[in-house]
Amino acid sequence: MTAALRFDPIRLPPECEKLRKEVRAFLAEEVAKGTFDPHSPHGGDSDVPGFSRRVGERGWIGMTWPKKYGGHERSFLERYVVTEEMRVANAPTRRFFVADRQSGPVLLKYAPEHIKMDILPRICRGEVCFSIGMSEPNSGSDLFAAKTKATRTDGGFLINGTKIWTSSAQVANYMLGIFRTSSSTKENRRHGLTQFLVDMKTPGIKVNPIGQLTGKAEFNEVVFTDAFVPEDHALGEIDGAWKQATSELAYERSGPERFLETYYVLTELVRALGDKPDTRGAEGVGRLVAQLHTMRRMSVSVAGMLHAGKEPVVEASIVKDIGTIWEQALPQRVRDLAAFVEPDASNHEILDNVLPYAMKVAPKLTIQGGTTEVLRGIIARGLGLR
Amino acid sequence: MAESENIVVETAEKIFSDLADPQTINRDKKGEWKAPLWQALSENGLPLSWVPEECGGSGASLAEGFGVLSAAGRFAIAVPLAETMLAGWLLAQAKIASPEGAMTVAPASPKDRISLNADGTLSGRARGVPFAKDAKHIAVLAHGTSGLSIALVDASACRIEAGLNLASDGSDTVTFNNVTPVAIKPAPKGIDQTSLMLMGAVARSLQIAGALESMLEISVRYAGERVAFEKKISKFQAVQHNLARLAGETAAAMTAASSAADTLANAKNFDDAVFLEATAAKIRCAEAAEKGAAIAHQVHGAIGYTLEHILHRYTMRALAWRDDFGHESHWAVELGKRVAARGADELWPLVASR
Prior knowledge:
The structure holds 2 protein chains of 2 kinds.
Chain A: H1 14-33, H2 49-58, H3 76-88, H4 94-110, H5 113-124, E1 130-133, E2 149-153, E3 156-167, E4 174-180, E5 193-199, E6 205-210, E7 219-230, E8 234-235, H6 241-253, H7 264-273, H8 279-307, H9 313-337, H10 349-361, H11 372-382
Parallel strand pairs in A: 1-4
Antiparallel strand pairs in A: 2-3, 3-7, 4-5, 5-8, 6-7
Chain B: H1 7-19, H2 22-27, H3 34-43, H4 62-74, H5 81-93, E1 103-106, E2 114-116, E3 122-130, E4 137-144, E5 147-154, E6 159-161, E7 171-179, E8 183-186, H6 193-225, E9 227-228, E10 231-232, H7 237-266, H8 272-300, H9 311-321, H10 328-342, H11 347-351
Parallel strand pairs in B: 1-4, 2-4
Antiparallel strand pairs in B: 2-3, 3-7, 4-5, 5-8, 6-7, 9-10
Helix pairs in contact in B: 1-3, 1-4, 4-6, 5-6, 6-7, 6-8, 6-9, 7-8, 8-9, 8-10
């Protein structure tokens, strides 16, 4: 085979199902308390500090990390269950999700011990929010064109420049950013970037929220003017950030959040169609459920391979490519299938409320965290075409 | 797949490599490759993989048999291997011994129904029965007044009108006019027409996924060989992205089919989990066949549209297999109805049940 794609049929072990029940009970409690509204699509995007702390108390942040750093040494598959249940319930995970998924693992791997001991337990307690500083006004998918500089100074670096489209920067305590410490070389245009941990309270950082077409302002322009970052906040190899980026992609790209972002409209379609849908409605739902089921099995399979210590980078990119295109098209399919729902019936009220927001969110899904075009490039490389 | 380490699957792959080389098959207009292939498969007990030894078979596990079907899909072989395996499986459910030679199953569509008459004979019509003309025997699931029966029927006792699927493999109409079966026994509890269709649907899903794996492989290889505008077409981003999409469809089909096979292999009965897995596999593999075959042809251009090139062996079969044991739209409606009956808030618990 040219392309040895592997998607082993992985099943979640019994401990996951026990955990799933606990997570569902916890979320039901939170809903009953009024922490969030499961029928509001805005839930998952919100920052609710009290909720984050209670999730932390349950031990559901940093689940796979060493206990020494506040983690719980549980399996990657257990983390998977928590992630998917939170996402499907529209729980407000903004404060901890990015830190849990990718910032924490980067710190675990590259940060000095005293920083790990300081920050990781706070992530696990649900106290700190991270943002990712990658894109710049003239550098999006082309990460290695980044120009924002980190210049050596006494005891550290001074950062100057602008990051943009930075999600959560308006509430984040820290940023993990990629900054230019040297020029790229002729031989390697990826050379010269270094990953840094930046405390967002540092003087010289200004966060300007950017209004989005949904009416919210959850991504930002972050302007750095002589912002000082201490020497020990440089993570990993100076000028060698490009070596650190790729292995994390499998974690970032294959999770259930990559196909469940608009899931709530499918639930509401089923509600609106009622218990005896017509043939068109039944067929439409059946196909969507078959597609959803297949993606989940692909995603669980990748989680299982990660759990087993493999690096299924191509498989993970495939999951995100197919998953994001599906979740993007889902609101349109749902709109189409709901076209003949009796207008005077009452079971489509929630759908009517949530569908417009899902339509507005849809365009970003194939852009954030690696565009469709970038993913297909990675898959093509995996196939040996590049 | 894990079964590549399995001796049964390895044996099948070896036989296919030796005797079902796609170029050789494609050049052989008389079908002379079929007899030696069938003989080798039979000598190794593969057509009766799912028949226990006491019923005349080789007693392989369901998982091993599914592995053989994936391999058969990768080679897009056109002999009644899957059909004989399914027939043997059905007969074994009623502890009816399997005879030697090729078999097929009837009905092969959820819409058709064969009746068991009061006098013990069978009546009815089954359409789109794969390889009925090539089969010596047919395993039949029949509806009688006191329940379901499983019967072994001599194919020569039936009226068989030859038909062809998209790949020009036999897809025949079998009419039972008061046919007396060779053997007949009541179907055990839990085996009904839906279970037979789901078994067939998973078999076809694995074959489609296998064919897609080969489409991906030969398309990637071709893109690396073909030069246009003074460079390999694999260097064009538009071609790369098409092939990335083909990889995605292949991955989806492989995952859905192997997950369904794994579920069936470990299930005690045809429960909700089996229904979701098997129908989802057939639906998603059929969708992947449509998208994947189109891309494989697009990458190949005109040469892939010729009889001379092997591509059509995979693309037309993957498309044809969609029709057997329930059109994907049929299963989508059935799955949609079940989801609706459970209610909106029970959808996620169903999807996330394992």
